[in-house]
Amino acid sequence: DGGITQSPKYLFRKEGQNVTLSCEQNLNHDAMYWYRQDPGQGLRLIYYSQIVNDFQKGDIAEGYSVSREKKESFPLTVTSAQKNPTAFYLCASSLTTSKIETQYFGPGTRLLVL
Amino acid sequence: GNSVTQMEGPVTLSEEAFLTINCTYTATGYPSLFWYVQYPGEGLQLLLKATKADDKGSNKGFEATYRKETTSFHLEKGSVQVSDSAVYFCALSERETNAGKSTFGDGTTLTVKP
Fold it and tell me: For B37-56, how does the pLDDT look when each residue is reduced to its tens digit (9 = 90+)?
């Protein structure tokens, strides 16, 4: 079955620590996205990638970094510069960045600060 | 910039009641419109979409019509079930002019009681 997987389901971060969230898709999609979801709020775009080896900042990129070395993988690193990282993180992909394309979402990773 | 405004929740209905969740948008161009649904602890799933004015998206008894004149995309269902309890997000995508970015509403929580 094709889809998007995210791991881990829960992640705990200590002060000053960088952590990496995994996102893998086997849908052969060109575009991938990372969103942050806070309680009672919509999704805010962190980073997106339209194609391998290319990515752009979204609306709230400060304190985060990404890479896109393979088509199927788009890991997100939450750095120590992100002062309020506790949130639910969602990865998504779409065939292209055309406006008619549906985004397919992973199950999410919940990041908590110790 | 683009924005999506959804009816505030939470919404609580009895089984078999009629559902309407209002959604209006502001966009600089000619967006595609989406409704996504999120079940507890999961990622978002596409419920329905419409890519041009007067299009009606439909799925699982839910419907929404793209109204350009009122910039709206209201979600309706004639008879809700307990299994419809979830958070519903209205979203727009205008990637030709805003590459890679979708804009989401804040979500409306629906609870259906037996």
Answer: 999 888 899 999 999 999 99
CA separation for the pair B51, B17 (Å, rounded):
28
Of residues A98 and A7, more confidence is placed in A7
The nearest alpha carbon in chain A to B34 belongs to A102
Q: Say which residues have a Cβ less than 8 Å from residue A39's Cβ, sequence separation at least 6.
A: none
**B93 touches A at CB < 8 Å:** yes
Q: Does B107 touch chain A (CB under 8 A)?
A: yes
DSSP code of residue B25: E
Q: What is the pLDDT of residue B100?
A: 59
Torsional sign, CA A86, B43, B94, B28:
negative
The tally of CA atoms less than 13 A away on the side-chain side of residue B105 is 30
The answer to whether A99 contacts B94, with C-beta atoms less than 8 Å apart, is yes
How many DSSP H helices and E strands does chain A contain?
0, 11
Which H or E run includes B23?
A: strand B23-26
- Counting one residue from A and one from B, how many pairs have CB atoms under 8 Å apart? 70
